[in-house]
Recover the amino acids of this structure.
DNA sequence: CTGGTATCGTTGCAATTGCAACAAATGTCA
DNA sequence: TGACATTTGTTGCAATTGCAACGATACCAG
């Protein structure tokens, strides 16, 4: 039965959560999921290139490129050519982008907390363990798409 | 950090698994995820309408409609008008569809087993529990999209 | 009956997507 | 230096998507 098929179950849960979350940044800021990811990433890593974003947030280059373009048009992000390497862009949040993010991040975090609140601390830890184990199956699978650098676990032993 | 944000982590894992799985039914049978879901559902529930599929496999009506059309053109599915209600379609797998599914289902199941094999029985049970708890958060959230009927747990107490 | 309402499947359409091709810039190595 | 490969960001394009509107059928109240 499809409803018991693990890939299907994960896909359904994921889509449901993503759609719910997109109401927050969509309604409040009119941005897409790609734009949301780019902005959140920029909040941590200022002055990054398109490729770095692409490597870090699980979006292909064209999507990042277009997301950055839209955000630039909206005045939320600044694109500057790098001085040393003319190919690279130096992308960062504008003040407007920062203030917008500051407005969206709290409800987004609140929603995450609401999800996590349904789980005990043990379950939360277990979920991380389980997800990491599933990732590792695919890490050893040459046909699976490789994992983004930043999605590798940092807390565990290395 | 984005990499620690639960909705993002679930989305990344889900997409990675889905993409890997789609290699199986895509390369072997040239069908899309929507078509895959429709066929798997039909394997269990013969003689169903578009709306029933839509209700059961987390695809909107147009997607189901188009998936069924493509599968019909490919000879994998038969569309018959219902006798009693002229609006309804009676959709079922053809023999060719059944044999195709019989060829794809084993590697798909094997892949699921490969994922599950990375988890202990306790972790597998815990994963189900956790996913159900996350679903329940959204079940009580009027802004979240409702869950498909068939995705509700059947084993638990009712 | 009959007018209004609900349901079913399909279609239109704008927007997004994924992938490949591309120009520009850099790196490499003889 | 100069030919060639690599990298970066963008663009083209075909296919898919999501949502709303649609015609057709069935239901239902008076």
């Amino acid at each position: 039965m499809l409803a018991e098929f693990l890939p299907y179950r994960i896909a359904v849960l994921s889509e449901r959560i993503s759609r719910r979350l997109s109401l927050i940044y969509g309604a409040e800021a009119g941005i897409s999921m790609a734009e949301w990811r780019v902005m959140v990433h920029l909040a941590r890593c200022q002055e990054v290139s398109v490729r770095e974003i692409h490597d870090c947030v699980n979006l292909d280059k064209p999507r990042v490129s277009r997301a950055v373009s839209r955000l630039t048009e909206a005045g939320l992000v600044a694109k500057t050519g790098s001085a040393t390497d003319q190919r690279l862009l130096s992308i960062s949040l504008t003040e407007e982008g920062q203030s917008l993010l500051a407005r969206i991040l709290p409800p987004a975090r609140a929603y995450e907390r609401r999800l996590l609140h349904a789980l005990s601390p043990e379950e939360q830890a277990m979920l991380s363990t389980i997800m990491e184990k599933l990732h590792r199956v695919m890490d050893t699978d040459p046909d699976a798409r490789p994992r983004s650098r930043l999605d590798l676990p940092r807390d565990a032993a290395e």
Residues 32, 34, 60, 62-63, 66, 85-88 of chain A lie near DNA strand C (CB under 10 Å from a C1'). Chain A touches chain B through 58 residues (CB under 8 Å).
